[in-house]
Design a protein that fits this description.
The protein is mainly α. The protein contains six helices and no strands.
């Protein structure tokens, strides 16, 4: 590992803050998702757990060789795709066996998560290094912010319609966003390999 520059130290600080915030979101959304019987909240919790792992990998990658960073970015993309598959399995299970999500809990937690993800996004956008791992981290936060908006809408629809399907639809949409983000990260890492 080469000596860390001031830019490296700034990236590490940013990633550490974002890592801690995402780990806290994982705990809060996970507990809330179980209590609210919400596929969308649980999907978002698992997403934040995978994000935390990726931020930790990216944190370790700073100051290392480009090949190490590309490997870390590839792992990030693969983790997102695995997460998406898990969410789709959970949505299918809830559709088959039934679920009764609590709309107001979904909306409240989605609002808190949106604020936290917006903070993460602002912090990550300050970095102008073009580093593939920082770009991956930004993709994760943007995906999470979009997912939070979907959960907010789904919670309102669950309350209004007294139906579970909006929660399941948003769970599937969260998985689709994760697939898109995972593919984008893998493409970006592949481009960096081709450029070297």
């Amino acid at each position: 590992m080469s000596k860390l520059t001031s830019a490296d130290h700034q990236q590490r600080r940013t990633l550490l803050i974002v890592l801690i915030l995402n780990a806290l979101l994982f705990l809060g959304l996970g507990i809330g998702g179980i209590m609210a019987d919400s596929s969308a909240l649980l999907a978002n919790a698992v997403d934040n757990a995978s994000d935390s792992i990726v931020y930790l990998i990216s944190f370790v990658a700073i100051g290392r060789a480009a090949s190490w960073k590309q490997g870390a970015a590839r792992l990030s993309g693969i983790l997102l795709l695995v997460f998406a598959a898990g969410v789709l399995i959970d949505v299918g299970r809830r559709w088959w066996f039934g679920t009764e999500p609590v709309g107001w809990t979904m909306m409240g937690l989605a609002l808190v998560a949106a604020i936290v993800n917006l903070i993460c996004l602002v912090l990550l956008r300050r970095d102008q290094s073009g580093d593939v791992n920082m770009e991956a981290a930004e993709t994760f936060s943007l995906n999470d912010f979009a997912s939070n908006g979907g959960i907010l809408v789904a919670g309102g629809l669950v309350m209004w319609l007294d139906q579970a399907w909006p929660d399941l639809v948003v769970g599937m949409l969260v998985a689709a966003i994760a697939v898109k983000g995972g593919i984008e990260i893998l493409r970006s890492a592949k481009k960096d390999v081709a450029a070297d």
